[in-house]
Write a structure and sequence with these properties.
7 strands; 4 helices; Arc Repressor Mutant, subunit A; homodimer; globular; alpha+beta; DNA-binding
DNA sequence: GTATTTTTGCAACAATGTTGCATAAATAAT
DNA sequence: ATTATTTATGCAACATTGTTGCAAAAATAC
């Protein structure tokens, strides 16, 4: 499994360090689930939160992860599935945020909107955030 | 102009206090622009940030303002145009966030999406965030 | 195996979010 | 109007997150 992490690091010309491998493992395990800095702090053994913070920034910059905007206030990241290149994230991300357990996951599918943009405004990225309760938090 | 603010307070059964009036004035002036706690701290004279924080929470709860999710990390609020009732915000908000000046504004128009929601997930609110540069920050 | 580059871990600090509590202010009751 | 009651304010205090600088440690290059 670490092969996959190693491969990602190599492909993005990042040094193979313990922290980076561990963080990547977490993301690979998480699948569509987005992870915050503190999620990683909880998951790893002796994490230094500043290192994690910088690791995430590096990964984002390299196009390994993308920010999962969910309105929760804390920054979360999720694995980019279709390889995003450096500084060129595939935009138009949709995320679901469960305001019960706080979980955020990436959704498939594209966004189309009939929103009126004032003149002179230039759009670079679109985020679609769905809020509600996830399957696990459903009251039967 | 304060009449409008007073009217809003009365309609929502909120006590008419100096802070609330001032905050409402700011929102009425701001129009479609969303305001953060620190925006209000800058705009008012002797603001207590905790009071502002609580004022905003109260206003949100009463349906006077709604959170303008923009991925900026800080919570911003904007006036609800069509009266939202308590705990029943009119969902489906679209916001534009300028990552140059940081400004966030409410957009008109509705959102439709072709996003695939996993089974068992229940959506309560939708947010659509457009990121880019606003008219003021456009390079000529 | 050594030199060079990059990453890590720590200190330190800023901004924001949040709660408890005594005082002050606003409304209700007399 | 005055007092009683309810609610809001302002302060202290603290948690969390975001962020930068720097020396030591680790990873790659030579």
């Amino acid at each position: 499994m670490t092969e996959k992490a190693l491969d990602i690091l190599q492909r993005h010309q990042l040094r193979n360090t313990a922290v980076r491998r561990q963080v990547l493992e977490q993301f690979l395990q998480a699948g569509h689930k987005a992870l915050s800095n503190s999620d990683l702090e909880d998951a790893l053994e002796n994490p230094d939160r500043i290192t994690l913070y910088r690791t995430l920034k590096t990964f984002e910059q390299k196009g390994i992860v993308h920010q999962a905007i969910d309105g929760s206030g804390t920054t979360k990241y999720a694995l980019c599935q279709d390889e995003c290149s450096e500084h060129e994230h595939h935009d138009d991300h949709a995320h679901f945020h469960c305001h019960d357990c706080g979980k955020t996951i990436c959704l498939e599918g594209s966004i189309k909107s009939a929103v009126q943009l004032p003149e002179g405004f230039q759009v670079q990225q679109k985020h679609f955030v769905l809020e509600g309760t996830c399957a696990d938090c459903q009251p039967e």
